């Protein structure tokens, strides 16, 4: 079996980027088939979609009520007996439509690796430590202004098996539930200036740089608190020309 190197992947990314620029395309969502991201080929339907009865789907789908979500679930640093290792941070932002109108009472769920880049998951067995004080999952509801807010630990980058020496930039996965499960949207938030952006075929599967930039949080010193936590701000726009890229 031949080893696919970072050099091979970077060359393929470059070829696709050049084609994109030559064609003058406006592509603001991730490509479904993006060969450098090898499993992208398996991650979307390959047959014609069937319409489903939304009410029938809802019978077997998860649901939630406002009272199901405890405000403490938005703090990922207090779920266990001790304090997790790593940089404590607050991440907050607004969820709006394309006109800036808030999306209220929205269930926002996040999951992420710990500071060492390790997920609490049986398939993540790379040699970075688990943190007994950090599970890496939290949720909250947006308020009347469409604002969500989490306290967590800054995740580390981690290796994956897309190709030899493949590493993901640090990121937090976000899920927005909608008013029911069939509206659920999933995306990832990144951190400014990550040196791994250029090497990551998942980030690069969005070919438009302006759209990629919408996935990167901004460091906000006003949100940073003295001797406690750094602050990052990341807004999510669901529709219109400044729409946040989502995973299909
Ligand atoms: Fe991840």
Number of strands: 11
Coarse structural class: alpha+beta
Q: How would you describe the oligomerization state of the chains in this entry?
A: single chain
Alpha plus pi helix count: 4
Order of helices and strands: HHEEEEEEEEHHEEE
Distance between the termini: 31 Å
Largest sheet: 5 strands, mixed
Radius of gyration using CA atoms only: 19 Å
Averaging pLDDT over every residue, what do you get?
92
Low-confidence stretches: none
Shape: globular
Q: What do these coordinates show?
A:
With 248 residues, this protein is α+β, with helices and mostly antiparallel strands. The chain is 14% helix and 21% strand. The protein is built from 4 helices and 11 strands. The strands form 3 sheets. Strands 1, 4, 9, 10 and 11 form a 5-stranded mixed beta sheet that branches. The protein is globular. The two termini are 31 Å apart. The model has no long low-confidence stretch (mean pLDDT 92). The structure holds fe (ii) ion (FE2). The site of fe (ii) ion has 2 residues, from strand 7.
Secondary structure layout plus pairing:
Blueprint: H1 6-23, H2 54-60, E1 88-96, E2 107-111, E3 137-141, E4 147-153, E5 158-160, E6 166-168, E7 171-176, E8 185-190, H3 201-204, H4 209-213, E9 218-219, E10 230-233, E11 236-237
Parallel strand pairs: 1-10, 1-11
Antiparallel strand pairs: 1-4, 2-3, 2-7, 5-6, 7-8, 9-10
This protein binds fe (ii) ion.
Fe (ii) ion binds next to strand 7.
In short:
By secondary structure, this protein is α+β, with helices and mostly antiparallel strands. It contains four helices and eleven strands.
């Amino acid at each position: 079996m031949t080893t696919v190197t970072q050099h091979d992947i970077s060359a393929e990314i470059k070829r696709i980027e050049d084609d994109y620029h030559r064609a003058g395309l406006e592509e603001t969502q991730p490509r479904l088939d993006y060969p450098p991201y090898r499993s992208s080929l398996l991650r979307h339907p390959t047959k014609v979609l069937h319409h489903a009865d939304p009410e029938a789907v809802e019978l077997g789908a998860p649901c939630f009520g406002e009272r199901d979500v405890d405000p403490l679930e938005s703090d990922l640093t207090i779920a266990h007996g001790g304090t997790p290792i790593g940089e404590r941070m607050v991440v907050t932002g607004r969820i709006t439509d394309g006109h800036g109108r808030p999306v209220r009472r929205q269930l926002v769920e996040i999951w992420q690796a710990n500071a060492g880049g390790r997920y609490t998951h049986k398939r993540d067995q790379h040699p970075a430590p688990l943190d007994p004080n950090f599970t890496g999952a939290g949720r909250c509801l947006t308020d009347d202004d469409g604002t969500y807010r989490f306290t967590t630990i800054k995740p580390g980058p981690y290796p994956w098996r897309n190709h030899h020496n493949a590493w993901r930039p640090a990121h937090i996965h976000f899920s927005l539930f909608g008013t029911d499960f069939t509206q659920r949207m999933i995306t990832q938030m990144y951190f400014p200036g990550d040196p791994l952006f250029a090497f990551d075929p998942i980030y690069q599967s969005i070919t438009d740089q302006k759209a990629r930039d919408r996935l990167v949080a901004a460091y906000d010193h006003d949100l940073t608190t003295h001797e406690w936590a750094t602050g990052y701000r990341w807004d999510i726009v669901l529709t219109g020309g400044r729409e946040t890229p989502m995973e299909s």
